[in-house]
Sequence to fold (231 residues):
Amino acid sequence: MTFNPAPADLLTCRLCPRLATYREEVASTKRRAYANESYWGKPVPGFGDVQARILLLGLAPGAHGSNRTGRMFTGDASGNFLFPALHRAGFASQAHATSHDDGMVLTGMFITAAARCVPPGNKPTRDEVATCRTWLEYDLTNLLNLKLVLALGSIAHDSYLEYLKAQSHKIIKKHYAFGHGNLHQFEGLQLAPLPLLDAYHVSFQNTNTGKLTEAMFDDVLALAKTLAGLT
Ligand code: SF4
Fold:
């Protein structure tokens, strides 16, 4: 079976009524700078290399970024930080990400998110992230060459741990604290879950304040490449 990152039941998903309403409201009202554009306004599918070794797990679409363009991290400040870094590390074919048809090709990496619909205030509820874990499971199950999960931010980190718990792994979450550069190997657990590497989210709030610098993120990507056997 060929992996389809955008199955019809994802693109029409309304399991989270609050988010389904909000994504469409944002797409209808728009930001003035994009008033002439047609917003995506649907759940944003994962994007990248279906032979990927690294699953980059973000938080959720940006209101006027991927909720507008229909591609993860595309068209906003987060993407303006992320894609140049992925390009420097050799994962992305180009540094600029402006639209779903800008020619971007990812190699070795697939990008997904803990929630596929834009949340008000960039904050999905715990229940919404839990509901959307169905789609994270879909990616984790169908991307057969994965070696590593790279979580951007604590919500993505937690969502992967909850996914492992739902797979009957004995996870004591306090043993796996989130921190930039933290690596969790899950040694001793049955079925050898994919290791988890943490990074601060590439949000404008983090990059603009210097909490996350280019050098810090480049270092995490270099470690991810090594862990995934890509160097
Ligand atoms: Fe469906 Fe996920 Fe969107 Fe909720 S956040 S409506 S589960 S796609």
User: Anything to note?
Assistant: The chain has a mean pLDDT of 96. The radius of gyration is 17 Å. Helices lie at 8-11, 17-29, 66-69, 77-88, 126-142, 154-166, 204-208, 214-227.
